[in-house]
Write a sequence for this structure.
């Protein structure tokens, strides 16, 4: 039988593990955002589905019976890194505590993950594919992430969704004029 490992105190205030399933599967994106790639382990989140989001290049997850998501869990995330992740995920996501199954052991670990905030969103469809994203979308997303991370050091930084929208609007305009 798998054991459940809680990281931190009983109130969950010290949980320092985060399950990621989308753009943060790419080490380059994580490094641009956190300035390091935390120790991590491959993991499965049961009872969720990873959707495409119309008009976005990143995925959303929502609870769906009999589905599962393969991703990885970052271990020993610091409080400042958690703040960065919260800002990066912005208002489109809610941070939730979930149980993930580690692939390299039989352990179940409690970790935070970011769940799409709008459960009935009509813009969610299909299944998001990391390999396809890596091939066709990662370069621009990485550039946007670098811009976001650098802007966080400024006194009046933009939230991630605003950074994303302005980056892609500017990038689309440059592609039209070139």
């Amino acid at each position: 039988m798998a054991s459940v490992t809680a990281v931190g105190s009983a109130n969950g205030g010290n949980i320092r593990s985060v399950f990621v399933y989308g753009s943060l599967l790419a080490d380059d994106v994580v490094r641009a955002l956190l300035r390091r790639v935390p120790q991590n382990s491959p993991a499965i989140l049961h009872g969720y589905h990873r959707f495409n989001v119309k008009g976005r290049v990143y995925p959303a997850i929502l609870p769906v019976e009999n589905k599962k998501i393969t991703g990885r869990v970052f271990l020993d995330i610091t409080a400042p890194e958690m703040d960065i992740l919260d800002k990066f995920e912005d208002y489109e996501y809610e941070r939730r505590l979930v149980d993930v199954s580690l692939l390299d052991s039989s352990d179940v670990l409690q970790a935070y993950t970011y769940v799409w905030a709008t459960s009935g969103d009509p813009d969610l469809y299909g299944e998001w594919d990391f390999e396809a994203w890596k091939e066709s979308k990662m370069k621009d997303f990485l550039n946007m992430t670098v811009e976001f991370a650098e802007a966080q050091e400024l006194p009046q930084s933009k939230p991630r969704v605003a950074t994303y929208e302005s980056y892609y609007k500017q990038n689309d305009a440059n592609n039209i004029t070139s």
Notes: Residues 160-177 form the longest helix (18 residues). Confidence is low (pLDDT under 50) at residues 1-12. Residues 148 and 176 are 23 Å apart (CA to CA). The first strand starts at residue 4 and ends at 5.
